[in-house]
Write a structure and sequence with these properties.
By secondary structure, the chain is mainly alpha-helical. The protein has 17 helices and no strands. α1 packs antiparallel against α8 and α4 packs antiparallel against α8. The protein is globular. The relative contact order is 0.16.
């Protein structure tokens, strides 16, 4: 339930995003609807992981879900783009704990030899929510209005709270808890926020790649008695390989998922629901591959060859996208997305399993959170870099392409207020220029 709620909140806005930002007048801030959530959840991930190791996961789970509910309600009632982005950030403060606490709880109660099967099931939940999210987003836009897609999360989160309260055992009280690493939390928040701003602003105020961004965090964590992300983790080769790999996978996937529905709606004249269906093949393949990977790891007791195959499949899908022309058919797009989704599904949860098996039970929450944290950094970079390229190029491209048909004034409205419905109602020559 927690995995489903968290991942649904990341994907449900994908098909609804063009309509939302058009209604609220914020096309130039489009990427922040997704980036605000991912940024806040990224900062919170290692914090939830460490606090779970120290204090137990049950009550943290309930707190995370409660904060998530407050954020969802704020989004649904938002009167402006600023209010929506603020609500998404609050959602992320709660959502950052849901996946990490779910994965760490599995490690608490399932023996290592059996975890592959359960991690495969967790991955399939992630895949299902990424299928359902865009479809639900499109349906809400067309039938009830986009505000209801945030309200939809609330009863699911309440159900998850009830399940956590009923099923998870009360944590054992410890009298020897070390002090919480407040300095590390603050330094990490500044570091990640700086990195996101650097990518979102596209090098105008910060360089695209700046080693200084993470320097304060590393210095603080080396001196902390109980660090949020101990530098000791990075001495483990498998942890580093799995963490870096997961980060780059999410960078590519979130950049793809976040903006393909917008392309389908504006360029191919599809409605929001149809755009969601075009993304579905990737998630269906992801679902199937997650179940298959969990079964194979549980049966064979090894995962190295499976990882090699998964990366080969993923690279093949990406190369296929590079090779196709600028206006591929829906069949080609769906097929390539399915190949990418199958490659990701084979390794997505198994990478977490590898990390968990490298560390003792007392550190499993911290290790799980650390690898999840860097995956989220990849997600943030994917959405913010692609979003920065989108928004920075939009005004320039509109000015160039609309010049022969009367300039930007031919739109009949501010570019920040463009929605798919407005674009489809434009005269054919203007609509062609926009597409």
């Amino acid at each position: 339930l927690a995995m489903f709620v968290s991942t649904l909140s990341e994907t449900v806005t994908a098909t609804a995003l063009p309509t939302i930002v058009g209604d609220l007048g914020g096309v130039d801030h489009m990427q922040w609807v997704t980036t605000a959530y991912i940024l806040a959840s990224t900062v919170m991930m290692p914090i939830y992981g460490k606090l779970g190791d120290l204090f137990g996961r049950k009550y943290l789970f309930i707190v995370a879900l409660s904060v998530f509910i407050v954020g969802s309600a704020t989004c649904g009632l938002a009167p402006s783009m600023d209010g929506l982005i603020a609500g998404r950030a609050v959602e992320g403060l709660g959502g950052g704990g849901l996946i990490i606490l779910a994965q760490a709880t599995i490690a608490d109660i399932i023996p290592p030899r059996q975890r592959g099967k359960y991690m495969g099931l967790m991955g399939s939940v992630f895949a299902v929510s990424t299928v359902v999210g865009p479809l639900l987003g499109g349906w809400f836009v067309q039938v009830t209005g986009w505000r209801w897609l945030f309200a939809f999360n609330i009863p699911l989160a309440l159900l998850a709270i009830a399940a956590v309260a009923f099923f998870l055992t009360k944590p054992v009280r410890r009298d020897d808890r070390p002090p919480i690493d407040i300095g590390g939390m603050m330094a990490m928040a500044v570091s990640v926020s700086s990195l996101v701003l650097a990518t979102a602003w596209g090098g105008t105020l910060f360089p695209w790649i700046s080693p200084q961004i993470f320097a304060p965090f590393v210095l603080v964590e080396r001196k902390a008695k109980e660090p949020i992300i101990p530098m000791l983790l990075f001495k483990n080769r498998n942890f580093v390989v799995c963490t870096v790999t997961g980060m780059f996978i999410m960078l590519g996937m979130m950049g793809t998922i976040s903006y393909l529905p917008t392309y389908f709606q504006i360029v191919d004249d599809l409605n929001a629901t149809a755009a969601g269906y075009l993304v579905a093949p990737m998630n269906a393949a992801w679902f199937a591959a997650s179940l298959l990977s969990g079964y194979l790891v549980n049966k064979l007791g090894t995962y190295k060859k499976l990882m090699v195959v998964s990366f080969a499949v993923l690279v093949a899908g990406m190369v296929g996208f590079i090779a196709v022309d600028q206006d591929p058919s829906a069949v080609v797009v769906g097929g390539l997305l399915a190949v990418m989704g199958f490659g990701v599904g084979l390794n997505f949860e198994i990478l977490v399993l590898v990390v968990q098996n490298e560390f003792p039970a007392s550190a499993v929450g911290m290790a799980t959170a650390a690898t999840g944290f860097f995956r989220k950094v990849g997600s943030v970079l994917g959405t913010s870099v692609v979003g920065a390229l989108f928004t920075s190029g939009l005004a320039r491209a509109l000015a160039e392409r609309l010049a022969p048909v009367g300039g930007v004034g031919a739109l009949g409205t501010d570019a920040n207020l463009l929605t798919p419905a407005i674009v489809h109602a434009l005269p054919p020559d203007v609509r062609h220029a926009v597409g």
